[in-house]
Design brief:
- It is a single chain.
- The chain has 178 residues and is α+β, with helices and mostly antiparallel strands.
- It has one domain: Trna Endonuclease, Chain: A, domain 1 (3-Layer(aba) Sandwich), CATH 3.40.1350.
- Helices cover 21% and strands 34% of the residues.
- The strands form 2 sheets. The protein has a 5-stranded mixed beta sheet with strand order 1-2-3-5-6. Strands 4-7-8-9 form a 4-stranded antiparallel beta sheet.
- The radius of gyration is 16 Å and the shape is globular.
C-alpha cells in the first residue's frame, strides 16, 4: 500500500488531536481535504481539514499559506449540520515537513475571512506567520490582512481548549450570506 502526500499532513493532524484528548473518526476522505468527527469531554465536533504543502513566497521572515474553498465546499458546511460545531484545521506545511504548523479556526473565524458578499464564487483563507510570532495572522477574501486580521495562538493545546469549550447555543443556526 502506497501513501499519498495528504496522508502525511492529515496524519500529523490526527496525531496532535489524539494527543490533545480527542477521539477522531474519518467521515470523508479526500486528497485535498478530509472531514473528521471528534469527541471529547466538552462535546462532539466536525473537523474540516485542508493542507498546503508549502507556503507562498517562502521568505525567511514571513510565511503565508492560502486555502481555497469552492462554492460546493461552502455549501457543504450547511448540509444539515450545526455550523457552530465545525472546527477548521489548516495544516500549514513546509517542504521538509519538520516545523510545519496547524492553525485551528472556528466557523465564525472562517465566515469573517471568506466574507459573505464577496463577488467571486471561490473564497480564500490565508494563514500568515511572522518569524518569532506567538500567533498566526488570519484573513482572506472578505477580511483585509492589514487592517482587520484575526490573531490566533500557535499553541495547539491552548487553541483546542479555547475552541472545544465554546458554549454551543442550541437554537443558533448561522447561514453563509446572513
Amino acid at each position: 500500500m502506497s501513501l499519498a502526500k495528504a496522508d502525511f499532513y492529515f496524519g500529523a493532524l490526527l496525531s496532535r488531536l489524539v494527543k490533545s484528548g480527542f477521539a477522531p473518526a474519518i467521515i470523508e476522505e479526500g486528497e485535498k481535504r478530509r472531514i473528521y468527527s471528534l469527541a471529547n469531554d466538552f462535546g462532539d465536533y466536525t473537523v474540516y481539514a485542508k493542507y498546503a504543502s508549502k507556503p507562498h513566497g517562502d521568505r525567511a521572515e514571513t510565511k503565508r499559506w492560502d486555502f481555497w474553498f469552492s462554492p460546493d465546499e461552502l455549501l457543504s458546511f450547511q448540509d444539515g449540520k450545526r455550523v457552530e460545531e465545525y472546527i477548521f484545521a489548516f495544516v500549514c506545511g513546509l517542504e521538509e515537513l519538520k516545523d510545519s504548523e496547524i492553525a485551528f479556526l472556528t466557523y465564525e473565524d472562517i465566515r469573517k475571512c471568506i466574507g459573505v458578499d464577496y463577488l467571486t464564487p471561490n473564497r480564500r483563507v490565508s494563514v500568515k506567520l511572522e518569524k518569532g510570532s506567538w500567533s498566526f495572522t488570519v484573513y482572506g477574501t472578505g477580511l483585509d490582512g492589514q487592517e482587520n486580521p484575526i490573531k490566533i495562538t500557535r499553541n495547539l493545546e491552548k487553541r483546542l481548549k479555547q475552541i472545544s469549550t465554546i458554549e454551543v447555543n442550541e437554537s443558533k443556526y448561522v447561514q453563509l450570506g446572513d
